Amino acid sequence: MKNGIIFDNVSFAHKNGLFQLENINLYIPRGIFCGITGINGSGKTTLTLLINGLIPHQIRGTLKGNVYLDNVNTKEKPVSYFAKSVGMIFQNPDFMLFNLTVKEEIEFGLKNLKLNNHNLRIKEALKIINLSGYENRDPQTLSFGQKQKICLAAVLAQDSDYIVLDEPTAMLDYQSTVDLYKLLKSLNQQGKTIIVVEHDTDFLNEYTDQTIVLNQGRIALKGKTKAVLSETKKLEQIGIKIPRLEL
Amino acid sequence: MKIFFASLKIIFLLVFTIAILNIKKYLFLTGLLFILFIFLWLTPSKKLVFRRLKILLPIALMIFVLQIFFNQSQSFIWRIEFAYSVFIRIAIVSLIVLFFMTVVSTSEIIIAFWFLPKNIKLLLTMTFYFIPIIFQESEQIILVQKSRGLKTFSWNIAPLIIPLLHRVFLRAELLALTIISRGYNE
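Above: the input entities. Below: the structure tokens describing the complete assembly.
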């Protein structure tokens, strides 16, 4: 089997019927910058929750098919097994940050994963996100963009191979969004696999290599970003913003 | 060293509180309350003292009313004295806790409980995380509901409580997912 993330005929229905996926067959190779888009309720977040096993281990429902992360079936191992290799960043950083200082926040994952050189890792991670010297700040007093960056730093400190971001720019202003995407692109160039859920197809067009378009829990389009986003008629039908393409 | 000072502050608070609850000399307690009040009034936490007094006064009233009307087995003077002694202790402990919270950071409090198991310490951190968040969320919800025409929450707290519970539960749920996805496995 190939390294990367494989969705093998995956279907999922939440027990309260809130979200579902149907017949997802997908291969996300290592080292790629992959975008996922779709209208609200199309299953984007559900797809990301399958990557590190939060579904089915934490979120119950009916799961059919298998998800493999570097050839390991996510059903067979606990979430903690995948925590080192998959760094998850949710839409709202306010829901993620709970420690009293930035240092403790980043250190939380390092302690859980029993990684060493905490101080060095924290320093390096903060340097990458341009927030050096913020170790003792209270995360709740930072701006929204800075909070989002701290969540990213927590993932960077644990040196995850896969970074999954669920609508990270939903509450960011334009400049912060551009800064975040530039940072993600540079991480991708250093070998990290980036998977980002995004509504703004202009950013997907500019930064991602591959794009997956979901519609009502199914894959509507997938492939190279330029090719996918040039299917303007189909995108319009689904209700996705047509990017300002320069094809 | 950090652990030592943090623990020292907690121990001081505990010893002071126990001592206050056991001192029987009302004059001494009154003097102590007065000194504490003046001291806090001179610090930047003046606003907090005022707010705390607003909470303490109805409590005092309630204690006096309960003693005067519902404790008929003792003389009137005894009941007044007893109510005063209860109130003055509550007031001193309340003000000293207020002072403690202004000089001790929440991270210091958690450090002081270094001997607790990891799970309990995490629980403590979460509690400290949620307290200000509940207040922030309440303030936001109040603004939203007032902008929708609600004048008071006195008779109907549902417009405040229901969205507040919903938001707090949502936060807790997402926080749980975050913690698990960051390798927490206990």
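Note for the figure: The longest helix of chain A spans residues 174-189.
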